[in-house]
Amino acid sequence: MTGKELATPELDMSSDQCVDCPPLAAPTVTVELFGVPRLLLGQGHVAVTGETLAEVARMLLAAAPALAGPVLDPATGWPNAGYTFVIDERFTRDPATPVTAASSVLLVSSVAGG
Amino acid sequence: MHGMHGRALQIDLATGKTTGIPLPDDQLVAILGGDGLASDLLRRWCPPDADPLGSETPLVFATSPFVGTGITTASKIAVATKSPQTGVIGDSLSSSYLALALKRTGYDALILTGRAAEPSLLVVDDGRVSLRPAADLLGLDPAATSECVRERLGQRYRVAAVGVAAERGVRFAAISNDGRLAGRTGTGLVMWAKGLKALAVHGTRLPRVADPARLAAHARDLAKRSLGPGTAKYRELGTAANLAFFNRMQLLPTRNFQAGSFAGAERISGETLFLDHRTDKNACAACTIGCEHHYRATDGSTSDVRLEYETLFALGSLCGIDDPNVILRAAALCDRYGMDAISAGGTIAWAMECAEQGVDLGVPARGVPRFGDGQALLRTVEAIGERQGIGELLADGSRIAAARTGQGSDAWAMHVKGLELPGYDPRKLQTLALGLAVGTRGACHNRSSAYEVDLSDRLSPDAETRLRAEAAVAAEDQAALLDSLTICKFLRHVFTDLPGEAAALYGAVTGIPLTADDLLRAGAHITETKKRFNLAQGWTRADDTLPARILDDPESHVTRDGLNHLIAAYYDVRGWNADGTVPA
Ligand code: SF4
User: B4, B6, B63, B202: which is closest to B122 by C-alpha?
Assistant: First the structure.
């Protein structure tokens, strides 16, 4: 990431909802994985639910625990500084970014090109 | 100043005469070292309108204050000359032990002028210079040449050599050392034109640094941080990781830039290569990152091959090749012949499109490669390296080949100033498109790295022209700064304040207290130095452009008018005249 790094998001853990369960009525989003995340998981995509990027990240952690540590913060699911999301071809580390079932969501290295 | 010797060594290869050239502190501070120093010396020593292969054109090798200091990744050498491929500046960087050896000779740079009377080996040993016959080395690849020279002189020597591609006159022949290349713009052909098959260097005299304790603390901290998330991609998968992602984003140049995605991308992706072909990992001298991943063909046709994304795309998707074994063999051939894989792949892709369009290339049809034909790709790489058959045409690069061929084939010659485009489709990368168009050495992602602006959240796609121009200028000047301090670009994300931290390192090494702003100004001055060289060699405004295929594509985000506005804004941000010339 060449722009300013956003802090790891403060996730709201006060809800009754189990973190391993999808938020009620949230859309299903396919997260496409590239590079190390893909190798760690042995697959190129994971279907999760969520209405914001923060929710998607949290559900991704639950669905793909192999990413905890090297890619995702084990507590929040938010990608560590080496990774970023690309939503509909826009790079973002804003956890409030809304996603829909039609969104294209990629998890990639935050170091572009080279 | 500390950290530099304060002098260069000029060697007239025609007479063997050597002259020590003082490098005053103010000159060194203004251009820092490395690429800045090599470019500055080239500008001072090269006559206007020089013939790149003429004896009057200098070939410069330069080190930097950071070489030999223990600063991670900084063991790099810069090479500069007038490019026989582009006619403008040909500046290149290469890593590893050669840089350390040169730094120990007691000189900061070598300025090679004239031409040796016969194929020669130039030996520089602690400032003593000898020129030795090297006819017995002809025909050897760079690695074998280096091995022979070191057997003869001793393993303490480090060697830069050219391969058969240079001997045969390939305009994108490289200079090879320690398994690395000063790859782009044909510096190898200039070295050969000076009568040199190889350069062997040894020395024992490193300059003292100003504050060893402060430097050691900074260097330790940087080395520790170099193992963090900012370099994870390079350490774990290498640059080959770009391919699948670029393909998904429609940025992967495919079939000579006819498309931005490739049906065979999965087969040649970094992830697939990692699982099926990777054997080993290595690092340049004095590097804690180690981004160099080695791969081997599964059919036994290669031993370990170092493969970067740029080689992978150029010999893969660009030529429609989806067989990793073929790409690895082609990459190994480029290394063996000693030539730039991007220009080799780019020029072959041009020929493949000629075949598709029915253009007569003056050789029997069976000698013309076609998209997707791996065996034809391998034959054509060899033909270029030997400059035989179709290689006689392609060894000059796509611009000259298209000019010689005519029949409208320049419409798909994908170059800027004669340098083939790197592996980023600029149709969707507007800042990079500007960076490639105005780049002093032609279409180069290393001298601009403006793709970082496009592949981030820094600017929206509809950002104002001026903001984009400022971003392109900043990317270019940052690259000039890194290349002149010889810090590897793969370290760039490790810094939280690159110019500030670089200034602290510079102060500890040299004892000269520069600020972050001073370094940014030096980056701009270095870019301008290269531009002034180009102006003296005949640059015109028309040279700053992109291939018609990019500008005329209705899907492209970069139109002719849009690019012209961006270029005008870029000149303005730089403080240059509206016609792109630099005020006196
Ligand atoms: S990161 Fe890679 S290219 Fe850079 S110095 Fe280290 S090994 Fe060499």
Answer: B202
